[in-house]
Specification:
elongated, about 140 residues, mainly alpha
Length: about 140
């Protein structure tokens, strides 16, 4: 039972990390690569404009300076918005229990190479070394 709980925690942690690492739209990797005009490039002026917009969103007291608290709150908000966008598959602006569980279940299915409904140490080690199966389950 302890192994099951530990592996379950690992699966959930990996799914959460994957959620934060996901692109938040068509700009792969965050605000710096925001391809607003659709031509596949970003100008320095577009970058400056995006930075100014972000700064203004973070500067909640409007004093033209960011405190540690404002910066922390802004970054957390951006992460929360990216996570919501990634998890909210039906687009209703909220995450259901099923939507929250889906990434962890997909990860579990990828790790469960033999499809027996459990993840062994060997399956986990093979995946960590890059030798595990890709996709839902390995045949064999």
């Amino acid at each position: 039972m302890k192994k099951y709980i530990a592996v379950s925690g690992l699966v959930l942690a990996m799914a959460g990390g994957a959620a934060l690492a996901q692109p938040a739209g068509p700009h792969h990797g965050g605000w710096m690569f925001d391809l607003r005009d659709g031509n596949g490039t970003v100008s320095k002026e577009q970058l400056r404009q995006r930075q100014a917009e972000r700064f203004q969103r973070f500067d909640t007291d409007g004093d033209g300076r960011l405190t540690a608290a404002e910066l922390d709150a802004g970054i957390r908000q951006e992460r929360a918005e990216r996570m919501l966008k990634w998890l909210d598959k039906d687009g209703d602006g909220s995450v259901s229990q099923e939507e929250l569980a889906a990434p962890a279940e997909r990860m579990f299915d990828r790790l469960d190479a033999n499809g027996d409904g459990t993840i062994s140490k060997d399956e986990l080690r093979r995946k960590q070394r890059g030798k595990g199966p890709r996709g839902p389950r390995a045949e064999g």
